[in-house]
Description:
Number of helices: 8
Largest sheet: 8 strands, antiparallel
Shape: globular
Amino acid sequence: MKSVFCTQSKLHPLLIDAVERIKKRINDLSDVKALSIDPKLCEIYRNLNKEELFIFNEFYQAKGFRKIHLEVAKLGNSFQILHCVFFPDPCYELPIFGIDLVLTSNNISAAIVDLSPVCERMPHLLTSQMESLHVPKFKEPRILPDWGNIFSPYVCFIRPVDSHEDKLFLSLMDQYLSILLSLVGSVVIDETSSLETRSRFEYQKSYCSKQKLNDKTRVILSKFFGSSWTEEYINKILFAC
């Protein structure tokens, strides 16, 4: 991720580590290519009351995935965010991979990772692999928001208490990605017009709609860019479907 790596000195090493792990997984995909977006939305800068906000966005497409979005944001010296979602091609019986890391004052205040379902019943192959995972017993699990029913029973939402738990979480994230990539070549692939494909796309739409209920993102962006720009960014960049 060229733009992010050019600003390594400004980002927390943990965030850089997470980005590098995700980028490696993206590069391991078949037929991966970058998706072009408005250059004004690739690198976004804004200053307000001597606070600097920057946001970097990258989008990819690959076999099995209609869109992969990787976003890194930094507000001043105390607030950093990593947001990444792998949206599967609805023809593929694949879950949605999502991760968010929120750092405040150089510590992770929130970390969530999941392989979220896009059908009423998660595929047996996915379920068996998730159940075989060794998930560490983090000391401070967090409560999902009211709209958190979009997540799977295997979602991990925590506040790491030290650098050891930071590393454990990144390792767990990597395992989730490993499971996802292992499924690409083995899951059912349906026709575009099939009921299964349409149903999975509806689940993706529901996932995006529920994610838009996250007011914390909206409040921060509105502070710098106003409500109109923020709504467009959320609807067209973060959770377009």
